[in-house]
Amino acid sequence: MSLPLSIPSPSAAWQYFDVIAWFNGLFHTDIDFSLRIHMYAVCILVGIIAAVLVTNARLNRRGAERWIIIDMAIWCVPFGIVGGRFFHVITHPNDYFAGQALWHVFAVWEGGLAIFGALSFGALGMWLGCRQTGLRVSVFVDALAPGLMLAQAFGRLGNYFNHELFGTPTTLPWGLQIETSNAAYPVGLPAGTLFHPTFAYEILWNLFGMAVILLINRNVKLEWGKTFALYLIWYGAGRMWFESIRTDYSEVFWGFRTNVWAAFLAVGIGVFVFWWQTRNHTGGVPSAYRPGRGPNDEGFQPVITGEVDHPELDSADGASASDAADKPVVARSSTATA
């Protein structure tokens, strides 16, 4: 039953679609096997693509080679997915080790990717990717931050299709309708109870945070990982509240849920990184690459799109600004690390 002034959950038919069945109906063929695509997986994939495009554009403006993000994504994405699933499973053990078939641990399409696990494992993949490409870690994470928030917003849309990540009961006009047959429906509540759409709160929080970070970057030059530190502070602060009103409880330690502790840790790391990098790096990053690893150091010039700041170029030789912009980026000799 549709309730006035509320958000309906999408039909269960929208949770997936069978590609082969659609193909057979369209072309009147008779293929025996089936290929099922889940909307949760589609949302995750769209989020990854969006993050790749945004990060690629930001890296290009910083002076990195065009599409070097593909080399980084090969490392970051698999590590992030494995880490996200691992963290979700260990913080919700009753969902997987209380009589259920063990294969559900690997059923990512059913939902269940934790951002804190994705960040932790993805950091390892990022480090390996930066070792391979020569990018500075600080440059990459600063370029990644806005795109990561966009990817998370798409991921939370997938939770909407899966009828999950809803909060405590509410009488607010934007309450979410959840069917009583949902396994996560709180026991004892009457049919027609509305719930906080926490997935939507997080979507809006991430999109707003992305806009704030991009606006700050237009007016203040935050380098050496400080843009990523802002992301950790912003997301962690919001997640502490979202987590406190969710009904799908994670494990509790010392009176707080695991994800609340993880969000608190993210804020703490963000504050520390911002303070430490501000204290130790007063100038700008000389190059997107570590010393000796830039394309110019290997004898070829990178293809750069957009406007790029070149603090290394000295216009005192009488060259015009436009001439300087056409020169290759040369990394300064520096002992600074990412």
UniProtKB/TrEMBL annotation:
<feature type="transmembrane region" description="Helical">
    <location>
        <begin position="254"/>
        <end position="276"/>
    </location>
</feature>
<keyword id="KW-0472">Membrane</keyword>
<comment type="similarity">
    <text>Belongs to the Lgt family.</text>
</comment>
<feature type="transmembrane region" description="Helical">
    <location>
        <begin position="224"/>
        <end position="242"/>
    </location>
</feature>
<feature type="binding site">
    <location>
        <position position="156"/>
    </location>
    <ligand>
        <name>a 1,2-diacyl-sn-glycero-3-phospho-(1'-sn-glycerol)</name>
    </ligand>
</feature>
<keyword id="KW-1133">Transmembrane helix</keyword>
<keyword id="KW-0808">Transferase</keyword>
<protein>
    <recommendedName>
        <fullName>Phosphatidylglycerol--prolipoprotein diacylglyceryl transferase</fullName>
        <ecNumber>2.5.1.145</ecNumber>
    </recommendedName>
</protein>
<comment type="function">
    <text>Catalyzes the transfer of the diacylglyceryl group from phosphatidylglycerol to the sulfhydryl group of the N-terminal cysteine of a prolipoprotein, the first step in the formation of mature lipoproteins.</text>
</comment>
<feature type="transmembrane region" description="Helical">
    <location>
        <begin position="102"/>
        <end position="128"/>
    </location>
</feature>
<comment type="pathway">
    <text>Protein modification; lipoprotein biosynthesis (diacylglyceryl transfer).</text>
</comment>
<feature type="transmembrane region" description="Helical">
    <location>
        <begin position="199"/>
        <end position="217"/>
    </location>
</feature>
<dbReference type="Pfam" id="PF01790">
    <property type="entry name" value="LGT"/>
</dbReference>
<keyword id="KW-0812">Transmembrane</keyword>
<dbReference type="GO" id="GO:0016740">
    <property type="term" value="F:transferase activity"/>
</dbReference>
<feature type="transmembrane region" description="Helical">
    <location>
        <begin position="67"/>
        <end position="90"/>
    </location>
</feature>
<keyword id="KW-1003">Cell membrane</keyword>
<feature type="transmembrane region" description="Helical">
    <location>
        <begin position="37"/>
        <end position="55"/>
    </location>
</feature>
<feature type="region of interest" description="Disordered">
    <location>
        <begin position="286"/>
        <end position="338"/>
    </location>
</feature>
<dbReference type="InterPro" id="IPR001640">
    <property type="entry name" value="Lgt"/>
</dbReference>
<feature type="transmembrane region" description="Helical">
    <location>
        <begin position="135"/>
        <end position="155"/>
    </location>
</feature>
